[in-house]
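Example 3.
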Amino acid sequence: MAVSWHIRWDPIRCGAHGYCAEILPERITLDDWGFPIISAEPIGSELEELARRAVAQCPLLALKLERRSGDGRP
Amino acid sequence: MLAIRPDTACWRLLSGPGGPGAESLPQHVTRLGRRPIGGTWLMDVLDASNLRGRGGAAFPTGRKWRSVAGAKGEAVVVVNLAEGEPASFKDRTLGALRPHLILDGAALAVESVAASRAVVYVGRAHTAAREALQFAARERRRLNPRECHFDIVDAPDRYVAGETSALVNRLNGGPAKPTITPPRPHEVGVDGRPTLIQNAETLAHVALIARYGADWFRQVGTAESPGTALITVRGGVVRPGVIEVDRGATVGAVIEAAGGLARTPQAVLLGGYFGTWVPAVEAWNLRLDDKELAHHGTSLGCGVVMVLPAASCGVAETARILRYLAGESAGQCGPCVFGLDWIASAMERAARGRADASERDRLIRWGGQVSHRGACHHPDGAVRLLTSALRAFEGDLTLHLVRQPCPSAHTASTILPGAPGGTEWQ
């Protein structure tokens, strides 16, 4: 089964700092209150490095990079 | 709220003595016989019965028990009688009248999933149910010292206190606020152990299915949704109350069983505050069958049927419910905290004639930005209600959006119960 990377968002930890959307606009946009909306589209190898940076830059550690198999399960 | 006993209703959970008090253990055993002992056999029977959870999510009961029984560690069983939904009275009514049915079902669950702890989680405001269950639990131990011990724990008066992760959080000593999942409670729940959380009505059905079998359960209802259901019928009906009906009954038949319409109807709220408004003509012939309701974009949810009279304003009533739900956010997830408040404000502006046509677009936009963006389903439920209101009250909304205020926007609700107003999370 194909394995791909996805970003998991913890809405309880998130404080709407918005760095993630600046670093990875290809997959993350902001809602009207500044909280990230994360695309369901998997993150390919070309975006993997940026995704790692987006996750690492979150001051509240609200993002996680997760491997998922092709059927969408972690 | 009283249990109604019309001739047309189908009595199973509420059969027996008709008085307002709880049925005693001797009465219960004389009427129904002793309960069997639970075990894996009961999970097979539950699968065959197609019983689904009655707290709102309609998850197959047998499958839930198996996932808890199959998880690592000794399990915990929790009876969920938080019933934080202000429009629903069915669980607290059942708890006050038939505590032994609920506790039979809970004891059967304890034996079937080999649990070592059982908890009854009951809404703080549901005094009659809590006292009846407390008394019933003592009565059972007196008669049979080996009978399962139940811890009775108060659920704070908050809408989300009965949500499963909030329940686990509370029983583990925290506030009754949702947490992110996974891990799900059936894997890691109360005391870090696999936890079976089951709505009180569901367990009462289990008590009867264990005695009479799956075929008996399926004798009434539909193939998809067998058995009976407890329904809270309220709003513009002659005799509001809690009623037990065949799942094959139509919404119209449920209303007739509650004495019929008190006034000309406009719409029906099915499933409570997380539910859907359905125009009355459309709702009338719908059966309480999960598949049929889903096909019409609605569901029975926690079993509320609330009739909105034609003279009431659906926009103003929806604004009131949305304002309540915004206030009941646990305050943890941004889109829920900000989004529900903005949505409620927009609906209030519309009802007061202080909005224009762009308000509808904003409501749709914010609904999309809030739905499925919380740790729990609180924002999703509020958006489901909003979306159904935009459709069911489209005409009224259009009128209000050309700056015609609703005369009822500043008065009290014509049908909604007062908000319980709990402020504690512990």
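Chain A touches chain B through 13 residues (CB under 8 Å). The two ends of chain A are 12 Å apart (CA to CA).
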